[in-house]
Amino acid sequence: MVSLFKRLYLVFYPPQPEPTSAPLKFGILGAAGIAPIALILPAKNHADAVVHAIAARDQKRADAFAKKHGIAKAYGGATAYQDLLDDPEIDAIYNPLPNGLHYEWTMKALAAGKHVLVEKPSADTADETRRMFEYAEKKGLVLLEGFHYRFHPATRRMKEIVDSGEIGTITNIDARMAIPSGILKDNDIRMSYALGGGSLMDMGCYTLSVARYIVGAEPLRVVTASADTSSAFPRIDMGATATLVFPPLSPALSAASPDATPSEITATMTSHFRLPARLGFIPQLPQLAVRVTGTRGQVTLYNFSSPWLYHYIAVKTTDDKGVTKKRTEKDYGPDGWTSYRYQFEAFVEKVRGRVPHHWYDAQDSVSNLQWIERIYEATGLGSRPESTAQIVTD
Ligand SMILES: NC(=O)C1=CN([C@@H]2O[C@H](COP(=O)(O)OP(=O)(O)OC[C@H]3O[C@@H](n4cnc5c(N)ncnc54)[C@H](OP(=O)(O)O)[C@@H]3O)[C@@H](O)[C@H]2O)C=CC1
Ligand SMILES: O=C1OC[C@@H](O)[C@H](O)[C@H]1O
Hints:
Layout: H1 2-12, E1 24-29, H2 35-44, E2 49-56, H3 59-69, E3 73-76, H4 80-85, E4 92-95, H5 99-111, E5 115-118, H6 126-139, E6 143-145, H7 153-164, E7 170-180, H8 199-215, E8 221-228, E9 239-246, H9 251-254, E10 265-275, E11 289-294, E12 297-302, E13 312-318, E14 324-329, H10 339-351, H11 362-379
Bound molecules: NADPH dihydro-nicotinamide-adenine-dinucleotide phosphate and the ligand O=C1OC[C@@H](O)[C@H](O)[C@H]1O.
The ligand O=C1OC[C@@H](O)[C@H](O)[C@H]1O binds near residues 305 and 306.
């Protein structure tokens, strides 16, 4: 318990190292709820980065956010986002706008010559994501989709266990990210189709991402997909469940397994904004685990999407004699380092032209959106709308 408090204390009150002589200056588009944990706190703990400006559609909101977080500049009003992008002092942009605005403002930020860390999912469609990364490449700028969980040591450890062959040949993956009803309000950005909402976009993007990461390959097909909708939000999947088939693990990985004939892998992904109460009044617990089943056992990473807060990796194996062994591992890394802090470290390293401890390429982000779109198509709800913004690129 003491270590939990110490860890969380250091997350919210991180040590602030002496800054370098010219730290990277970040600007944030929108006074978004996620910005403090995902960018401001990691930057406070980084010697070579500083959050220099915030832009919000309302000046008072921008000022209040800047004051609260010790940010030097606050842009407000109708032109605030573009004003921030036009600020020559800013090197990099954090884009935590609603999903449906990721494409427009990432493209505009790249056009202004800024590196971009864009929140997940990177855009509404795979085609938008592809165009964003192609443009970043052309401009020689760093663009990263913020799948922070990938940078955390617990995620890497789970993958290491799977790749070691300890649980045999993988047969199934079950990835869930779902929260009980009563948390998400009707006016949340996640409930707006026009803003790129839906549980598959918001939470399903993680479940798909983690399954693809574990297998290290793209799915072959969507087998089943269904969505829970309501008459009040007909185009929003309050919940979505999809079953996809992946190819067997690559020979390099299956060589670590003693099983002779690896078979296709079935992955089930579940996301939900409002898990219904049991018997109408007992709230369900959040579902936040990814479980990988193999021919000789299982590995479960609980809370794969926010491992920094709390997680465990449960490994269960059964040998040829039927003897079952269980163990639990944890890997938080240094106290106070969230998955966002690891992600931030990698982003800054990349911008500085150094090799980050972990990275994933543009195709990874494009593929994630491709499969989100295929699942939406299979549910009958269709992709989220493409941006209609006019963007001037060079
Ligand atoms: N990596 C992670 O762990 C998480 C990632 N996210 C992602 O971050 C993004 C933002 O999520 P979250 O912080 O929860 O959202 P919020 O609603 O808290 O913030 C969204 C921001 O978008 C701005 N905005 C611009 N146009 C609109 C509009 N038309 N309607 C509403 N807001 C608008 C607002 O900025 P302004 O201040 O200018 O009004 C607002 O502050 C999403 O893409 C989400 O998927 C969210 C949570 C966790
Ligand atoms: O990490 C997260 O948890 C809750 C979600 O609604 C959010 O958008 C996601 O990124």
